[in-house]
Recover the amino acids of this structure.
C-alpha cells in the first residue's frame, strides 16, 4: 500500500515515535491574555502537564528503555525548568515548538523569525544544544516557515501531514528539509480535549477507544513500512488512566516486534543518510504550494459556500 517504503534500521517493519507537546498554560495566555490569570482551574488543568505528567512519562519511558522527543514552547521551558531538566537528563530530545505557542501563519515573516530565534536562544541556553526539530504550534506552518528553518540549520520539521513516510520539503531555491509527518488520527486533542476556556467540547473517549484508533494506525504502519508519530499533550494523555493505556500499547508494540522506537532527530538522521547514500529516495514536496490565493476566484470575496 506504500509504494516507496523506508528501509528502517535492523529490518524493522516500521518506525514509532511518541512525541509530546508540552504546551502547559502557554495556550491559555495566548487565548486569553488579559484574563488568563483569573482562570485558575484552567491553569491547573494545563500545569498538570509539567508538574505531574512529565515525571510520569519519563518514568514510563525508562521502564521500556525508550528515548523520545518532546516539543516545548520556550516560554514553558522558562516557567517549568524542572520538567526540562527531567526530560533532558533522561536522554530525551527537546525540540522547538515556538516561544509562546504563537501561530506562525498568523505572523509576518519578520515576526515569525523573531519568535523562532528567541525560542532557539532559550533552548540553547537551557540545554547547551541548538534544536534540530520543529513542530509549528497548532500545525500552523506558514509559507515562510521552511525558509526560516533552513536558515537556522534545523534538520527536520514535524508539522505536516503529507505522507505515511518521511519526505522532503524543498524551498524555491532548491534547499531541502526532512519532513516527519503525522496526522489528526494520531493527535490526542480530538479524543480528549474538553475545556470551557477553549470552547472545545469533544466527547471524551475512554482510553481504550483512543488506543483502538492509535493501534489501528500502528498496525497499518507495521504492515506497510510506515512511520507512526503520536502527537500528544502531557495535560491530556499524561492523565492516569490514559498513561496506563499507553503502557499497554507499548507492550503490544513490543510483542508484535520489529519496531524501531526512536527520537525524531534519529529518524531524520536515518532519512538523511539513506538519501545521501542513494539507498532510498524520499518523495519531495515543493513549498509553498501556492504563491497566494488562486486566481480562479479573482480579487473579490467569492461568496461560494464550502
Ligand atoms: Zn502545541
Amino acid at each position: 500500500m506504500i509504494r516507496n517504503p523506508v528501509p528502517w534500521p535492523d529490518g524493522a517493519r516500521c518506525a514509532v515515535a511518541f512525541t509530546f507537546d508540552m504546551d502547559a498554560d502557554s495556550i491559555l495566555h495566548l487565548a486569553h491574555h488579559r484574563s488568563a490569570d483569573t482562570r485558575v482551574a484552567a491553569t491547573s488543568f494545563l500545569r498538570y502537564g509539567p508538574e505531574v505528567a512529565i515525571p510520569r512519562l519519563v518514568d514510563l519511558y525508562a521502564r521500556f528503555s525508550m528515548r523520545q522527543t518532546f516539543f516545548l514552547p520556550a516560554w514553558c521551558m522558562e516557567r517549568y525548568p524542572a520538567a526540562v531538566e527531567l526530560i533532558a537528563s533522561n536522554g530525551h530530545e527537546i525540540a522547538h515548538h515556538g516561544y509562546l505557542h504563537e501561530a506562525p501563519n498568523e505572523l509576518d515573516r519578520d515576526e515569525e523569525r523573531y519568535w523562532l530565534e528567541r525560542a532557539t536562544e532559550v533552548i540553547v541556553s537551557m540545554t547547551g544544544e541548538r534544536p534540530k526539530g520543529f513542530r509549528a504550534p497548532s500545525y500552523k506552518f506558514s509559507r515562510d516557515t521552511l525558509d526560516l528553518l533552513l536558515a537556522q540549520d534545523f534538520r527536520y520539521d514535524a508539522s505536516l501531514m503529507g505522507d505515511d513516510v518521511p519526505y522532503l520539503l524543498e524551498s524555491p531555491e532548491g534547499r531541502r528539509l526532512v519532513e516527519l509527518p503525522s496526522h489528526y488520527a494520531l493527535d490526542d486533542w480530538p479524543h480528549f480535549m474538553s475545556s470551557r476556556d477553549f470552547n472545545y467540547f469533544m466527547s471524551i473517549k475512554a482510553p481504550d477507544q483512543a488506543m483502538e484508533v492509535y493501534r489501528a494506525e500502528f498496525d497499518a504502519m507495521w504492515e506497510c513500512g510506515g512511520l507512526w508519530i503520536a502527537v500528544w499533550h502531557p495535560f491530556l494523555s499524561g492523565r492516569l488512566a490514559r498513561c496506563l493505556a499507553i503502557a499497554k500499547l507499548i507492550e503490544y508494540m513490543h510483542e508484535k516486534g520489529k519496531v524501531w522506537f526512536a527520537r525524531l532527530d534519529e529518524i531524520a538522521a536515518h532519512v538523511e543518510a539513506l538519501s545521501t547514500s542513494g539507498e532510498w529516495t524520499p518523495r519531495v514536496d515543493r513549498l509553498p504550494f501556492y504563491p497566494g490565493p488562486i486566481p480562479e476566484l479573482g480579487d473579490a470575496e467569492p461568496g461560494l459556500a464550502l
About this structure: The pocket of zinc ion is lined by residues 21, 23, 97, 101, 137 (CB under 6 Å).
